[in-house]
Amino acid sequence: MNWTISVKSFIVKDNKLLLIKRRPNDPNAPSAWEIPGGRLSIGEDPHTGLKRETKEETGIDIEIKNPLTVRHFTRHDNQKITMITFLCKPISQSIILSEEHTEHLWLSLDQAHSIIWPDFQKDINVLKELFSDSGEKTL
After folding, report:
1. Which end of the chain has fewer CB atoms < 10 Å from its terminal CB, N or C?
2. Which residues, at least 6 apart from 1, have a Cβ–Cβ distance to it below 8 Å?
3. 68 within some domain
4. Parent domain of 89
5. Predicted confidence (pLDDT) per residue in 88-100, tens digit
């Protein structure tokens, strides 16, 4: 099958977003800064899959707060993906990266917007809008 559902977690702590850097030999977007997440197993609940993928890639547990965006696209290798992104809060603190990633950073939304893989810049804009509409001082 050439179609999959993917979930991604925008993890925010103290108004900073967690970014992780793909390994340099990654077949898709090598060395790109992104957010944790990945593909769901067939029939897997999106929340369960998001928590699993985030734990696998970062070693941290999350609380899912809000959905942010849903989009459908075709990758350069013709794989069709429907992606759901979520605003999340970290429950645990120690980050242990998987072998898929080489670095992590906690950045302000503006800083993150400037280095994140371009496909996620729209999500950061949605996150900024959600944050400003909520009237809260911190995420």
Report:
1. N
2. none
3. yes
4. 3-134
5. 999 998 999 999 9
